[in-house]
């Protein structure tokens, strides 16, 4: 099945933007000019521009036209066992390395594990978990979201049951779990992409429909998974750098 005409026009304009034919801040041709170039009606041309707006490539200004969106500085998120194993927050360490003031806001609540989360944590659906939702900030601007889950059968009645309260608040998962005798030995991450939900787009200041990266991260001890999270990353703001240790004989 062929792609709708407006999507083919959006594909072509997207490539021109990526190639630098239209640099950040440049005004795109008017809808009428696009309609003439691609030999389509103005409505089809308008839909193509709207597609680029939804993807975050273009901003529309009433009465002025459509412009290539200025890209924020690209920052790096280091996915590294060495960094995760250190004391403190890996996110804050990443931001500090790039001269950015990193922080977060969060809220925690006990809830029942949805089926997919239960599968990732090797527990039964509806088993109790602590769910913590984070909005990470760089220089006080929202830059990343995360929703984490920890089985309450492990953390209930311990000093780390609330990830961001108590004597170990603000520490990474590795250090917190170590405090209750859970030694994490490896981490898995599955990276996918999808359009941001309406709530995610609003929290991160994205256009509706903008594609985001989703990092599905799970921490394991020798016996079992002890934490899993979905991390939402805008790809125009971050690159993911994976550092993989190699054991020597």
From TrEMBL:
InterPro entries: Bact_HTH_transcr_reg, Chorismate_lyase_/UTRA_dom_sf, Tscrpt_reg_HTH_GntR, UTRA, WH-like_DNA-bd_sf, WH_DNA-bd_sf. SUPFAM superfamilies: Chorismate lyase-like, Winged helix' DNA-binding domain. The keyword Transcription regulation applies. The keyword Transmembrane does not apply. Residues 3-71 form the HTH gntR-type domain. Keywords: DNA-binding, Transcription, Transcription regulation. Pfam families: GntR, UTRA. PANTHER family: GNTR-FAMILY TRANSCRIPTIONAL REGULATOR, MANNOSYL-D-GLYCERATE TRANSPORT/METABOLISM SYSTEM REPRESSOR MNGR-RELATED. This is GntR family transcriptional regulator.
